[in-house]
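Internal ticket - ligand job 417, magnesium ion:
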Amino acid sequence: MTKEPTCQDDYDPDSLSIDAARTRILDALAPITDHEAVPLNESLGRILASDIHTTVAVPGFRNSAMDGYAFRHADALKTNTLSLAGKSMAGLPFHGTLADSQCIRIMTGALVPDELDTVVMQENTTITADELVIDQLPVAGSNIRQPGSNIKNNSQLFPALTRVGAPELGLLASIGIESVSVLRQLTVAFFSTGDELQPPGKPLGPGQIHDSNRYMLRGLLTSPALNIMDLGILPDTLNDVKQALSETAHCDVVVTSGGVSVGEADYVKAAVEQQGNLAFWKILMKPGRPLSHGQLHSGTHFFGLPGNPVSGMVTFHQFVLPALRALLGQPYTQPLSLVATLTDTLTKLPGRVEFQRGILSTNASGDLQVATTGLQDSHVLTSVHRANCYIELDIQSTGAASGDRVSVIPFQSFPAI
Ligand code: AMP
Ligand code: MG
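stdout (structure tokens):
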């Protein structure tokens, strides 16, 4: 269902589209280049600072893909009975010489002697004291892993800016590298603002709430590529916020929660403006309309997220995550979006993109279906906990009915920092 925006809807002519805001943010930052050497064991989640070239092949030698027997295929065409001359184990090669019609016992990963060209799996043989009968002859060359079939010598294994994950750790180890050059960590400071906030563990007075966003932000910002600094809770005064910001000159990024709306207690914008430059945007999205973005000192990127927890989460996913990645040289890619059949009714006013929280699953016929998590208000952080995806409803949408096909973005499709 679509319609032109009217003054009865959620449309605000001063607002910026999500893509336009993200583009402005990404255009305003340059990737870091400083790097450091770290032991391989400490490189998980870090970003390679330079290309990795190989000076070895992996595998480095012909080896068996099976537990079985290695032989010359030409011999086995003449007779199906070969004599056993020895064995080659992983790490303990066969060193003898082989006469015609001789074979060796061989284990997975063991070196295949140059003069042998085929391995038969042991299940396809019958063995007597020192004779092997090949019951099913494999084709010549079978079950031998060739040198370089995993990694070629003199090749580029990874380009610079590759993120080191589990397979990359294994591959770096497999070429014998024990230390890698990675981009330095980004230093990211974060704090909550709000006179109503108390840390967990402190009793609540009338009208007070526990500060949950700083903990959520800690969860979102915990990454081996980031060095995070928790600056605590700040009261809603210009001086407190200015004081905290003045201590962030060495930071690459500052992320704050709350105080960026247009309310009387919203001092974050003013504090940033006095120490740098700031843009305040109303984004055409829900939740998470207000967002502040700017620069502090010379080169500290500032993000002021809205205080409502779900708004903070969505804003983080849409803007802060791509920005942190871009500072680490990681390109922006749209998160994978799928189409699923809605099993509930969703209400929405036209005028903003909405990221409602959904539960994506596969039905009995193997098709994707998505249910709502219920109440979608921006203080309902349980809606994110219960969800595994966003249901993305476009600007014009006026809601969706059970049976409609809707776009979903699995949380897992947001890339790691
Ligand atoms: P604000 O963006 O400061 O106007 O706050 C919007 C709403 O989010 C208010 O209901 C605040 O009480 C709430 N809020 C602000 N900061 C936090 C926080 N750190 N944790 C939980 N809720 C918060
Ligand atoms: Mg506030």
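Auto-summary: The pocket of magnesium ion (ligand 2) is lined by residues 193-194, 258-259, 265, 307 (CB under 6 Å). Residues 35-55+153-183 form a domain with the Molybdopterin biosynthesis moea protein, domain 2 fold (CATH 3.90.105.10).
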